[in-house]
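RECORD CONTENTS
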Amino acid sequence: MDALNKLFNDERKHFREENLKKYIQAGKIAARVREEIKKVVKEDMPLIEVCETVEGRIRDLGGKPAFPCNISINEVAAHYTSPPNDERRIPEKALVKIDIGVHVDGYIADTATTVCFSPEYEEMVYVAEKALEAGISIIRPGISISKVSSEIQATIERYGFKPVSNLTGHQIGRYIIHAGKSIPNISHFSLERITSGCVYAIEPFVTLKDAIGIVEDGPERYIFRLVKYKFAQRQTEIKNLLNFINENFKTLPFAERWLKRNLGREEAYKRAFAELISQKYLISYPVFIEASLKPVAQAEHTIYVGDKDIIVIT
């Protein structure tokens, strides 16, 4: 029995090591693309150019996008990605959040940065980074998630800013961006703990002290995800699109831009796409907007929690 247990543990350790290598590979790609895009983004740049530059570099470097590049401006906190033919541009004095996801064989790294074109908000960007550092610095196996959250909130408030209370960090699984545990950016009661052998994204969202500090669903939805695959559809175009989405994105979010990129003219997929949404084969993600329309800054890293060490993979 001892020999069988040792064999099982050795196999599990090897399995975890192989997975970790893929997480680390995804993290290196994500970090490189994050640093590259910070140098490229400028005022009046088309948003779609930022999105497609990020996603193209991920593919060039051997990864795949784990979700569409989010480019969220000012009071928009998250979940904006360019739709096909997007004509929007980065405005002057904007606060630009760029959220990047990379996967290698389904193993995901998630990272974000804020590019600031207004001196008025530079400190808020700095505070988001400091809160990220503070949260990561105390993480260890077994620590209460509420302690991590309290440290993030305390850091943000120490500088005179406010955390966004209903956006959280999250555990990451294979082909699953939000898996299991959440890591809020505000103090709360929870019995949940950080577990060794798991991967987490830590991501403080920071706004002004006089903001409401929550996000609300906006009217726009440009990110989608497959939630149902079994179907009784007989229409060939719907079946073909469903198969394409399942084969290429599985359970990961995707953008309509990606359908157009791979399937050609919008007429070729538009009707089938609308039908899949109508029949709830796909869900869509609303753009999140700070309720008092105050600007939001974001910072994010993905970490692996080992038995003894914490690896910041992005």
Summary: The longest helix spans residues 2-40. The chain has seven helices and 16 strands. The domain at 220-287 is CATH 1.10.10.10 (Arc Repressor Mutant, subunit A). The first strand starts at residue 64 and ends at 65.
